[in-house]
Each structure stands twice: as C-alpha cells, then as structure tokens.
Amino acid sequence: MALAHVPPRPAVQRRNARLRLGAAVGLALLAVVTLATLDLPSVDRVVTGITTNVPPIVGGFLTPEWSLLPRAVAVMFETLFMAILGTIVGGLFAFPISFLASGNLMPSPVLAYPGKVVLVAVRTFPEILLAIIFVAATGPGPTAGIMAMGIHSIGFLGKIFGDVVEGIDPGPNEAIRAAGGNGLHVFLWSVTPQVLPEFASNLLFRFEINLRAATVLGLVGAGGIGLILQQRLQFRLWGEVTILLLVIVAFVIVVDSLSARLRRSLA
Amino acid sequence: MSASAALPARSAAQRLRTTTTLGLILGAIVVSAWQTEFSVASLVLGTVDFVEFFAKLVPDWSYLPEIWGPLLETVQIAYLGTLFGALLAYPLLFYASINTAPNRVVLMVTRSVLTVLRSIPDLLFAALLAPVLSIGPLPGVVALTLFTVAVLTKLGSESVEAVDPGPLEALRAAGATRNQTIQFAVLPQVGATLTSFLLYAFEINVRASVVLGLVGAGGIGQDLLGRLNFFAYGDVSLIVLATFALVLLIDGASIWLRARLI
User: A108 to chain B nearest CA, in Å?
Assistant: First the structure.
C-alpha cells in the first residue's frame, strides 16, 4: 500500500496543471482558427506539386553535378569573407556604442538609455531587409551584404557587449582610481582586460550566425552563394542545387565547430 | 618616480601571442576585403546615393489598409511554424540529450540529423520548398517548422543536459522507465525554461516570416518585393515601418511573458 502514503498534490500544483491545460487548449484552438483563415493551397495542388517535383529533386540529389564544385567552393569562400567583414564592421561600431549604453560607465544610468534604444531599433530589422535597402541604394554586390550584416550585428553585439561591461568587477576600477589613475587608465587597464575575452567570444558567436545569414543574402542580390543558388533553383537544376547545399552545410558545420573550439579556449 | 616603471614587463610569450592574434585578425580582414572587393572609399562615395535614397523613403499612409492582411498572414505563419516545430522538437530533444537518450546510437543519429538541419538557414528552406509546395504561406509554415525544430532541440537539449542528475538516478534506481524518468525527474526541472524557449522561438520566427515572402513563401515580404520592383518607395517605407512596429510589439509581449514564467 505504498501509494496511499503519497500525499495529495498541493493546491498550487493543481492550479498550475489547470492553467497549463487551459493554455494548451487555447493554443490548439488558435491553431485551428489560423489554419482555417490562412490562404493555403488545396490538397490536390500540394499533391500535384509533390508528385511532379519530388522525383526530379530526388534524382538531382542522387546525381549531383560535381562539375559545379570548384565554382561552389569559390563563391562559398566569398560568402565566408563577407561574414568575416560583416562581423568586423558590426564589432567596430558596437564597441563604442556598448560603452555609451552601459549604466555603470555613463555618468548616470539614465544617460545610457539613448544608446540602448538605438541598439533595440537596429536589432529589429532583419539583415535581409537591410540588404534589400542597401542593394536598392548602392547597387548589388558583396558590399551591400557586408554592410547589411554589419549594421544588424551592431544591435546584437552592442546589447551583449553592454551586458558584459555592466557585469564587470568594479574593484580594479576603484583600485586604479585610488592609485591616482584617470578615466583613460581605468578604461585601458581595468575595463578592457576584463571584457576582451567575452567580447571576442561573442564576436565569434556572431560570426557563426553571420555565416548562415550570408548564404541567403545573395537571394536579394547582396553577394555570396545565394545568388547562384537562386538561379539554379529557378531553373530547377537540382543536381547543381545539391552541390551548392552540400558546400553550404559542410562549410557551416566546419566553421561552427572550429569557432566553438576557439570560444571554449577563450572562456 | 614614474608610474609605468612599477609595472612588470610582459613576458615574451605573452607578447608573441598578442602579436600573432592581431596579425591573424588583420590578415583575415585584408584577405576578405580584397576577395569581396570591399572598399571604404566606394562606401563613402555611395553615401550621396544613400542619402538621396532615404529622402525618397517617405511613408505613403494611404497604402496602410492594404498591409493589414499580409501582416496578419506573417504572424499566422510564425505562429503555426512555432507550434508545429515545438510539437516535433519537444519529444525529439530528449533523444538528442546525453542523459535522456535511450542509447548512444540514437543519440548520435539524432544529433547528426539536427546538426545538418541547423546549418541550413530558414530562408533557404523556404526557397527550396516554395517550388514544391506552391507559392504562398504553406512553404513558409513548413520552413519555419523545420527551423524551429533546429533551434528548440539545440537550446532544449542543452538545458536538459544541465539538469541536476540526482533525481534521475533516484528514479532509475527505483526502476522507473525512460518516460517516467523524463516526466518526473527532468520536466519539473526544465519545464519553465522550455516554455520560455517556445516564446523566444516565436520572436525569431516573426522576424523570419517578415522576409519569407522574398522567396515566395507568403507574408508581407511578398508585398515588399512587389512594391520595391515598382519603385513605390512610399509603400516600401510604410511596410518597413509596419514590420518594425510588429516586431517590437511581439518582442515586448514575449519578453513580458517570459519574465513571468521564470
């Protein structure tokens, strides 16, 4: 009779269970309504689309167009270089902005708000949207993609850099001031050594994100492997699409693991 | 008595390390700039075009009634993608966590599949799916579902692997099955975190679904591309402003909810 000794569930838990059930039912109802109102194609059309497209796609996957490989690797390197520059541009701008957005370094925490607002605003725009604007304004090419990634990265990096700066140990700052150091000395010998490893680690993390982003910037003409991928998709050259996808996946996985290893050694 | 005389000199090894790191970073920048023909000069020269372009971006408010539909569709795609993705990801992530996977083989297979899935950006999924599932919101929903699976399994398995192993061992020692262990030892520890990841995924998905239309996968991106091709910059800037407001609104609501969850 072991079960008899288990105490009944407390009221809080029972209320939480009812809340969870309610939330689940609500989410499911919302999904039904959404599905009913969304402009979805008829089942026939989807079935036709799948039956006419899947065999050639599978055929393309099974017979990759290996002759495209050198070209694919070359444009993927261009994509990689775009991601590097985009990350650097973002880091260069985020570095000063993050100090302006840190409550503990500004004379008053209120003065950090304008910086914080700018960072939130920048973060809100997806990079591909920025890329469209840059392409429309300055013409197509990798430079548009680099700037789009750079500006979008400012939002992310500035926020994280700011959090890092706000979390530093104030002891060394005070020690330097007590020894007669000025603001510049504090910045150089206390703040910078404390934040540099975390800044570097987050730059690498952002670089991993940017590499993925850079592969699709070409879809809107902002350079990289996305452009030739889109052409191949439009002409449904699945054998060539396969090679491009393989190169993207391979690059991203290799760069990710290298970068993750570097980040671990920094931490 | 100069202050710097008191500072100990940096060792040769330290100096070498700093020099090599800086050299590598500089080298990467130079090679990248050369290969992508990135030049600050052309960017500076381009600022005139840029300013001229932005002068044209005055929102045309008369276009506003036409964007409510696409905006709603954008949120709908994000919602369904998040929901379906979560339904797939939550059971799956326990197979991708070292402390809850039934065995090593299942763990390795699940992790490898998810690693490949994670290396493909959402927009690429959409671009691949649009020709197959016909232009419209359907490829968008499927693309975001796959993307959500990739995100949630990664975040989720990391927190599952970080749980206190004590309760798991206790339940296993008492003869609990794998499902019972997950239900009574793991879920109570990570339930709130996993729910907050769901909201986080929804935030990301709203941002992603804004641009899905660029490759024919539904939502407001389709209208954006159309207006841009007609050089209707007033409409373009209105769409950009509206997506900006939408993302801020969703982010704010989600952050508020997440703060209450944990």
Answer: 25
